[in-house]
Design a protein that fits this description.
This protein has 8 helices and no strands. The chain is an all-alpha fold and about 150 residues long.
Amino acid sequence: MLSWYSVIFKGSDFNSYRDGMIRSAVMFTVFKRKHYNKSPLVWLSNYLYWQDLNHLALQTLKQVLAGIDEYIAKNFHSILRSQTKETDDGKTIREKATAIDHQKETQTNFRQVFCALILKIFVSNTSFINSKRKNVCFCFSCTFKV
């Protein structure tokens, strides 16, 4: 799954990246994954919306795809790895990750480094379900084309 990230995403091959997002959304839906299924669906929803509007955001994303950085996640995992042992079980790692996450409130520069802009978006359950259905239909239609 992550092997396509370094080759396609960092190589700025937007069409292959889009196809990979579609495949991951289909895979997560088929296997009924509860923790990973929303991100590809949100991405596809944004993609479809921007495509319908011929939005500047889509054109910009296509141009700067390789420039998008995963520093935040890499840094968090680095901090977590430094505070865990190989013998730690899942529960212990989860507790340490939660503690690190709570520490961000006491660090003075955490928000400037990790959270440049925070937006609160509220979506109704009905709207989310309708968006999910639309994305799944789009994914399956693209899958049959491939």
